[in-house]
Amino acid sequence: MNDIIVPDKDPMGRAIFDFYSTGKAAKLRVLSSMFYEDEIPVATLFRSYGDMPLPEQQALSLAKGRVLDIGAGAGCHSIELMRRGHDVVAIDISELSVNVMRERGVDARPINLFDDTFDEKFDTLLMAMNGVGIVGRVERMEQFFRCVKRLLTPGGQLLLDSSDIRYIFENEDGSMDIDLAAGYYGEVDFSMRYKNIKGDKFDWLYIDFDTLCFYANENGFECEKCVDGEHYDYLARLTRTADKKIPV
Ligand code: SAH
Fold first, then answer.
1. In terms of DSSP H, where are the helices of the chain?
2. How far away, in angstroms, is 71 Cα from ligand 1 center?
3. Average pLDDT, whole number, for the chain?
4. Could you tell me the pLDDT band of residue 248, with boundaries at 50, 70 and 90?
5. Mean pLDDT along residues 97-124
6. Exposed end of the chain (fewer CB within 10 Å): N or C?
């Protein structure tokens, strides 16, 4: 669970590596038992500030102090934050992506967010591009918030974006095409393919703002929405509830 992905199991990392070293990449295919096959345009993983959606741009503006970019990919947010003068550490489970980020000048480390031996402190934790997806399932929220507590300085903040994917299952009359008793509708299984590299299946979580707030509150966090995106996406800012209490 707290593993690192090695290169021969890492389609996205290989795509990032190819794009960085040659300026182009083959198709990065995304498969799921729930959706039709899709692809991630690899160039978008190298997007600049101007090409980022509003919730990501807003996250970069709200970042303060020392920042941990979690699941940093090719490092596009880390690089913009460094340009703005922040002290930034990037972590990712992809060795290939970490190597590319290092080449790009980022202090990148091959670390899994759920590895509790990593206990440096940060004023801002950033999870971008449906960054909270790496939590996988809502039942992991408690474990996730334990990690967040371990990594945040007092008064620190977690900035994350996600989407409410209810629209995918909703009919015009508002009824839903899914079995609501089967679990939370934002839990999706994915796997990726790039050239001849097949990645393992993984769980990916899309979470609507109200459900996020519910789990945040349960685990001692306040949750506020900073901005809505253009397609059911949003940016949220989470802070420790304890930070707000006035000592008596
Ligand atoms: N934030 C980047 C990349 C998003 S893709 C961007 O916005 O462009 C998600 C990234 O999270 C991938 O690079 C993947 O390797 C990484 N990742 C997935 N699970 C992780 C985990 N448990 N800990 C750290 N990184 C993880």
1. 11-22, 54-62, 76-83, 95-103, 141-151, 166-169, 209-218
2. 3
3. 94
4. low
5. 97
6. C
